[in-house]
Amino acid sequence: MSTVSAAPRTRIRPSQAGLAWPLAAALWLAGCATPRAPQAPAGPKPASMPAAAASAEQDGPGDDIPPDLLRVPDAEPRLEPPRTGGPNKPYEALGQAYVPQLGDPAVVERGLASWYGRKFHGRPTASGERYDMYAMSAAHRTMPLPSYARVRNPANGREVVVRVNDRGPFKSSRVIDLSYTAALKLGVLGGVATVEVERITQEAIRTGSWRRTAGDPALAASPQPAAGTADPIGDIARRVAAERP
């Protein structure tokens, strides 16, 4: 086995050792004393939300209203047993307590209808579904959820069938909150209007008695607007923007 010789070590004379430590310390202090790069001055604080952006948070029609909404078919009633608990439990809104009805109640009301739009579009309803302002739906304070209801506008004889899947309205003078399309088809987009509301019971759905027949006098007195003629959507949207409180 061969012997590997170690590399010769370099000796430091005492005079050199005495200078090494002060030099190292001086270099370390110099590094600490190096000035930091100047920071850019703070920019101006963000301005408050402009009025135009704030107004976009208000309710109203959407920015891109789909065409042919007058052709959207009414909700088709089907057997959907009301959920137990959840949206059918007693609740409180704006300091007022409400107790949803149980079972399969017959509900007939007359009062004011309002509608709700872009402020709630896409948000969860009381039933957990997403609100679609362009579907045929509505909100009611105490009907079992889900329910179906026939809503009639006595001023023009129009009527629609909606699926009730949300809670509201919470103004005592109002009986139902309609989707944008339901309000359009009823001709009540300009604001609140008097309507007649009738819940379609599970029994009526089961037997089919809820359907209007060709000879039904109520059907003859309930004209539906033709798409592109009555209440053009563009005109309605402009009128709503100017008149809605």
Give structural notes:
- This protein is α+β, with helices and mostly antiparallel strands and 245 residues long.
- It has a domain of 149 residues: RlpA-like domain (Barwin-like endoglucanases), CATH 2.40.40.
- It has six helices and eight strands.
- The strands form two sheets. A six-stranded mixed β-barrel has the order 3-7-4-6-5-8. A two-stranded antiparallel ribbon has the order 1-2.
- Strand 1 and strand 2 form a beta hairpin.
- It is globular.
- The chain starts with 13 loop residues before the first helix and ends with a helix.
Helix content: 10-25%
Largest sheet strand order = 3-7-4-6-5-8
With helices defined by DSSP (H or I, 4 residues minimum), what is the helix count? 6
- Radius of gyration, CA atoms, in whole angstroms: 36 Å
Main sheet summary = 6 strands, mixed, barrel
CATH architecture of the domain at 95-243: Beta Barrel
Corresponding CATH superfamily of the domain at 95-243: RlpA-like domain
* Nearest-integer average pLDDT: 76
Uncertain runs are 1-56, 226-234, 240-245
Structural class of the helices, strands and pairings?
A: alpha+beta
Distance between the termini: 103 Å
General shape: globular
Strands, total number: 8
What is the ordering of alpha helices and beta strands? HHEEEEEEEHEHHH
CATH topology of the domain at 95-243: Barwin-like endoglucanases
CATH class of the domain at 95-243: Mainly Beta
Q: Which strand-content bin applies to the residues?
A: 15-25%
